[in-house]
Amino acid sequence: MEKLVSLCQRRGFIFPSSDIYGGLSACWDYGPVGVELKRNIREAWWRSEVQERDDMVGLDTSILMNPKVWEASGHLAQFSDPLVECKSCHQRWRADDLKENKCPACGGELTEPQQFNLMFKTFMGPVEEAANVVYLRPETAQGIFVNFQNAVNTSRKRLPFGVAQIGKAFRNEITTGNFIFRSREFEQMEIEYFVKPGTDDKWFDYWVEERLNWYVKLGIKKENIRLREHGKDELAHYSVKCIDIDYNFPMGWAELEGVANRGDFDLKQHMEYSGKSLTYLDEETREHIIPCVIEPSAGVDRSVLAVLCDAYDEEIVNDELRVLFHFHTDLAPIKVAVLPLSRKESLSAIAKDVYADLRPCFVTQYDDTQAIGRRYRRQDELGTPYCVTVDFQSLEDNMATIRERDTMNQIRVPIAALRDTLQAKLAGEDLFVLPEGGQIWKDEKK
Ligand code: GAP
Q1: Ligand 1 center from residue 298 Cα (angstroms)
Q2: Interaxial angle between packed helices 300-311 and 2-10, expressed in degrees from 0 to 180 and rounded to the nearest 10
Q3: pLDDT, position 446
Q4: Closest by Cα among 16, 299, 333, 32 to 167
């Protein structure tokens, strides 16, 4: 983890928040490369779970909500962790994280556990009084439940169907750490999938498998993922059943995503507290029913961390360490780097033309700063799948070299065919045909 944290900072993936002021505990900023990786993860999720499905619509609801929402959802009363304080050094700990009943910092005696609510409070408007308290949402899910009727009426979806949302959530976690694994401000990708009561077990199994496959499709190794069912004592106050999709992080197996059967808990609660109907008219039976909900709830930041851990690799090439990320091409922050062999005007002119041609199609970086070997290593550390090199021979034969990150194979193709060739390769097309005049070779030996 230490190596990863330092590489992420050095290469512009992730920085501590407000770093020049000494940071802010458990808050992180995504840098120029990290922001692209994070966007690609969100987009891959949105594409496969919303845009490519007939049974899903999206929402983007506000972070601040009427405080009654949190009364109804049970978060005000129950969204808490047991907190203990050391009687000697006064450090505070989450009781269920401790292996022994003494302070991990000084060995001192601990107080009895007290429930500590994890929601951040603030005030709405200019007067700081109890009547104006609002909360930063601790999950994006409630924005979906309170819009259930709006979603049904405007999308005209019939059961089973889902509503998806990506957005920030906030929790005043007692213990944080492990880089971006547990932070106080983070992002969730949540689906509330509404089904007819009685079909919820079937849909629960469906979503566990669908979500597991999603990670594998994006290149996460199967052996690094496992399923873990919650014991009855672990279940959140709203859920009937929950299976975690765990990832084998450097600090051990931990939750990447939870798939929960929330039953009809949330819709019922909001009906009771708002006095509004959140029922659904079953067209077959003409009865008003309250659907059950299956909730696959993933963390964007935890997905970023899992992708980084899974893609990280070290190998020795020509007696030197090569560090690289084997990102799936859909997730790689930079798809192509254009690297002129030298800064000579004649080469820069061609390289800049190539750059201008590729840029509208892929996230492309132009780099003419150091020796070519160093520039390849830099792109390896950014996980860039393809580098395009323009050299002096290009001036004569109008060809350029494509160098592949994972194999370090090089192919030489006509400049006019670069865009199509890269497009095919990035799409993972097996039927890649070397364009007319192209050659393949390998000159960096593993
Ligand atoms: N709506 C259900 C829900 O919020 P959860 O298991 O508390 O369930 C869902 O959270 C996901 O959100 C987790 O699997 C994790 O990926 C992410 N998550 C939760 N707390 C987090 C934190 N403090 N930091 C980063 N990610 C977090």
Answers
A1: 7
A2: 100
A3: 44
A4: 299
